[in-house]
Write a structure and sequence with these properties.
homotetramer, alpha+beta, 3 helices
């Protein structure tokens, strides 16, 4: 099953500067061959369910190995059976509506 | 790796009454042998990473089979290496603070 | 507008034991006169939009005053115009489906 | 208090094509003069607490007026007292780590 995921990993017990940990997760996701888009509050990911969640588990393992004793993560996750939709399709779909383009919703 | 998860599954394209779908997911989680607590905005789950995410995938499959063409799910997910903590420990810990009990935080 | 909210406040930069901060937020919500239910991954809240979000802002202020330099919060939030539904209605609705009761969904 | 927010609004009871509703929310946020970045799973917003949550309430009102009887929204929300950080700072901070730049974390 294909999933579109928004991943936000928050390491606890390592102070307030988290970008080193987020960068490590970006590398884990890239090594997994997943399509990703970094944004200010997380990372959008596109892939097969098993691949995506196995990669997220490796992110948790990596962040714990870097010294974080606790991690609090938020995931938004979409699946659909009616059509195939990519990360870029989702953004384009809203942008077309904003420009008044009469496109497939 | 043990995880504590909060799962909120929102089927789309099936109207506004979602409790039948949520109940189906509760059954999937129970069949998986996972510890769960239903609350007003989701279900708390305790278990091993692979078991929990395999069960959540089966929830998505079940809800799609019931006729929902699209699902939007939110997951909060915690892991920790410093101590073992159950769903009930987490609630108890806050309740003790509220009662002024001088307990392990 | 009435809202049903699930609030999960995660203070950063104060170590891994968060229950003291969560208990402080519970007190802020109680002082605001809001209906709440604590669970293992957050607190369910029922109330008017302005009251709820003003109280959540006071939670952030309280947690910053307790010494947390950064806070990462996740909120799930539901509004509906078709019917009035309480926190307890939401749980009861799923539980009735699980018991096979033929109730209003 | 300044907040960084990630907003994901999911209208229920209006089928599976949601981009028209999301575009309407984008217009509400723009009219409120808020800094925003659309991404595949939501919209990042930067602004003062009261302005941001008043605008999100107007998004809910707009989506209900467009015919959605129920809305399920997820918000991630960050505040910090140690430094001022913009949406673009957050992305840049991770990207610098990925490039191996020795920057302020």
């Amino acid at each position: 099953m294909k999933v579109i995921v928004d991943l936000c990993i928050v390491p606890l017990g390592v102070g307030v500067s988290l970008s080193t940990y987020i960068a490590a997760c970006e590398r884990v996701l890239a090594e997994a061959g997943l399509e990703t888009r970094l944004h200010a509050n997380g990372t959008n990911i596109e892939g097969e369910w098993e691949d995506v969640f196995a990669a997220i588990e490796r992110c948790h393992e990596a962040v714990h190995e870097m010294g974080a004793p606790r991690i609090s993560t938020t995931i938004k996750l979409g699946t659909r059976t009616d059509r195939n939709q990519s990360l870029d399709d989702k953004v384009r779909s809203v942008e077309e509506k904003l420009r008044g383009v009469d496109a497939k919703p």
